[in-house]
Q: What sequence folds into this?
């Protein structure tokens, strides 16, 4: 109780209240505009928050992170375009509801489900905080190294069908982090003799390039979308009543959100996928899923809103971010010399609880704001795409230039913007680069410190937590290899099924003989020989 | 006709091979420079070597990209790849706009350059109505006043502000 009181004391400031309001309203607005998203907004605002108190800066960023998904549901439901990437599943059941004339019901249900998910996860984590405070000190240098390695591994294998290139991009992140003066032996690494690279490549410059500037390029080179908005009729409170009729789906989905949010590299998509599948399998009307099912909408929205609070756990308890947004927040901690990790949970537990309470208040603020202002808010989806591109490019300048007033940083950010644009065009992930940079830095420091006390390789995993983490790494690797083998087998089966003739060796020889004996085969061979002669004559 | 392997590929076909080949070439070039760009320090543990983590990073880039290339179902650069490369080049125009903005702000000032940059780029994008021009100018003023005036982000005064009268100079350096 004392802990909660001291946490409330931290929050009882006018600037924190203002940050909560700005974060919640700003987050909803940013989420509601398709093409912007929380990553762009956080990347731009990051340097501006450095001059604020840690709790104020983090509240603004957390506000944007936590409330953008509420806003993202609006265009997902009304115009079938997700406001943020994690609202993609909302379109499955939200838009069919709008199509059959129930946009109010869908929006109200999405808000209520999101609110439940947000509140559920914060309460879970406040109750879970004392346990975390006991577990966190068990993490020494080796355990943090292994946890960071596990996080990186999970991010890579989570990209199904793209794991190899995701691995290459994560390694690019590790490499980028090593550029510049190395802090132990004071040697230069990959600076090519230039002063500009001597101080290294700043994470925020890369983040702004990969998320904000690249998004500006995407919008500027694209066409404006024609948008037709549906008029909203009816009450906004019916969703709360409807949610109460599905307590099982709501609580299980929120549970998935909490658990998946805590695992680095997993996040919203897996939580949504699992909760949606669960809801469909246990529903009395599974055929409605994808056609405007209220349970489907509840599962998707509850799961994704339960993630932000949970995603703060590995960041606060171990100093390990599990995704790009928490990686950006880590830099706010570093700027203010607040080092997240076991020490934070032991010495500044009230700060941690204050952050969770801020998230709790934020969810209430967002719900109140949305219930009252949705009708006016939906007009933001009318902002033309390319004008948004102009705005993001202008705002990106503030983000990069205000860091160190360096034109070189801006050049590097523009380069990463172009690289991010190419990645987006090819649908390749940029998140592994960011996590590679952050986790690569953590791994370098922790491995160096850990190896100083290790005599044999087995000493590295002789502590229980280290052993458990090592076993999990092996399980993840083994599961991934088995999945690849299964996919390869399925591919082979599919390839063979599409062939109309037999693939047996005997049948192959028979067809070859027929080709030699038939007139048509002779003509084909003569044509090929003629082409070959022409080709050889060229040389 | 598309093969089963091509059909199961995640993402569009256009540009994939071009990107992977470029990325692999750059990675190999970086790996070839590891001897000159990093140092091997004597009497230092293997894991504490300054060369260790760059080797992990660049080595991983080469290994994983090579494996990705090996598993890639496309083996030939086609017209769609070249068209995609032109699309990438189209973004270069906006990179130049951005760089021009970056170069001009320290010389002319944050407010005047933003006040020209936003409406000009909006004009270039086809928003030429007086209403959109006014919105663009209003947006530019808002950004400068909000970030520099309210949030006090670090954007130094321009060289041009030095020529302003004394009373105006300090105000312009602080807020515009």
A:
């Amino acid at each position: 109780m004392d802990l909660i009181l001291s946490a409330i004391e931290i929050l009882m400031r006018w600037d924190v209240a203002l940050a909560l309001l700005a974060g919640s309203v700003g987050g909803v607005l940013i989420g509601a505009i398709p093409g912007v998203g929380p990553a762009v907004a956080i990347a731009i605002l990051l340097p501006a928050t450095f001059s604020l108190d840690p709790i104020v800066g983090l509240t603004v960023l957390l506000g944007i992170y936590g409330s953008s998904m509420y806003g993202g549901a609006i265009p997902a439901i009304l115009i079938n375009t997700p406001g943020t990437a994690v609202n993609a599943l909302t379109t499955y059941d939200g838009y069919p509801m709008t199509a059959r004339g129930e946009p109010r019901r869908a929006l109200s249900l999405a808000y209520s489900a999101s609110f439940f998910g947000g509140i559920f996860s914060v309460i879970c984590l406040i109750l879970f905080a004392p346990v975390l405070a006991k577990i966190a000190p068990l993490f020494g240098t080796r355990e943090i190294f292994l946890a960071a390695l596990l996080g990186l591994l999970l991010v890579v294998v989570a990209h199904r069908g793209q794991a190899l290139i995701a691995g290459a991009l994560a390694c690019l992140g590790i490499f980028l982090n090593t550029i510049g003066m190395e802090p132990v032996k004071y040697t230069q690494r990959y600076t090519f003799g230039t002063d500009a690279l001597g101080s290294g490549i700043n994470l925020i410059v890369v983040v702004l390039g990969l998320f904000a500037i690249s998004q500006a390029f995407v919008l500027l080179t694209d066409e404006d979308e024609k948008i037709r908005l549906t008029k909203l009729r009816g009450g906004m409170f019916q969703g709360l009543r409807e949610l109460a009729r599905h307590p099982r789906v709501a609580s299980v989905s929120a549970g998935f959100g909490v658990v998946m949010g805590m695992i680095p590299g997993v996040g919203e998509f897996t939580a949504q996928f699992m909760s949606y599948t669960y809801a469909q399998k246990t529903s009395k009307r599974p055929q409605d899923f994808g056609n405007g099912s209220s349970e489907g909408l509840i599962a998707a929205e509850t799961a994704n809103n339960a993630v932000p609070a949970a995603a703060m756990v590995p960041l606060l308890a171990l100093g390990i971010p599990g995704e790009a947004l928490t990686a950006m927040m880590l830099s706010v901690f570093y700027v203010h010399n607040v080092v997240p990790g076991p020490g934070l949970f032991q010495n500044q537990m009230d700060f941690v609880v204050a952050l969770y309470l801020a998230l709790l208040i934020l969810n209430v603020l967002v719900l109140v704001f949305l219930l009252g202002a949705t009708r006016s808010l939906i007009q933001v989806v009318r902002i033309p795409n390319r004008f948004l591109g102009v705005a993001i490019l202008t705002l990106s300048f503030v983000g990069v230039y205000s860091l160190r007033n360096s034109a070189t940083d801006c050049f590097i950010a523009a380069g990463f913007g172009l690289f991010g644009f190419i990645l987006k065009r090819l649908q390749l992930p940029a998140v592994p680069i960011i996590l590679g940079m952050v986790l690569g830095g953590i791994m370098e420091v922790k491995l160096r410190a850990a190896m100083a006390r290790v005599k044999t390789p087995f000493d590295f995993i002789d502590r229980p937590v280290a052993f458990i983490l090592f076993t999990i790494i092996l399980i993840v690797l083994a599961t991934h290899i088995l999945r690849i083998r299964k996919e390869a087998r399925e591919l082979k089966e599919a390839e063979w099924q599409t062939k109309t003739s037999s693939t047996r060796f005997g049948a192959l020889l028979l067809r070859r003989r027929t080709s030699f004996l038939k007139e048509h085969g002779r003509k084909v061979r003569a044509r090929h020989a003629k082409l070959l002669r022409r080709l050889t004559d060229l040389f | 006709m598309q093969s089963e392997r091509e059909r199961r590929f995640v993402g569009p076909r256009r540009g994939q091979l071009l990107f992977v080949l470029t990325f692999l070439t750059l990675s190999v070039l970086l790996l070839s420079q590891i001897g000159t760009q990093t140092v091997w320090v004597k009497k230092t543990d293997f894991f504490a070597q300054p060369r260790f983590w760059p080797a992990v990073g660049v080595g991983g880039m080469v290994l994983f990209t090579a494996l990705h290339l090996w598993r890639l179902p496309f083996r030939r650069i086609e017209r769609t790849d070249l068209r995609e490369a032109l699309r990438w080049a189209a973004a270069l125009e906006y990179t130049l706009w951005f760089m021009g903005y970056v170069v001009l702000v320290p010389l002319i000032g944050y407010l005047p350059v933003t006040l020209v940059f936003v409406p000009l780029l909006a004009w270039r994008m086809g928003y030429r109505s007086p209403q959109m021009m006014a919105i663009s100018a209003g947006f530019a003023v808002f950004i400068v006043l909000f970030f520099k005036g309210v949030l006090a982000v670090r954007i130094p005064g321009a060289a041009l502000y030095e020529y302003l009268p004394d009373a105006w100079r300090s105000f312009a350096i602080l807020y515009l």
Summary: The mean pLDDT of chain A is 87. Chain A has three domains: 2-453, 461-498, 500-538.
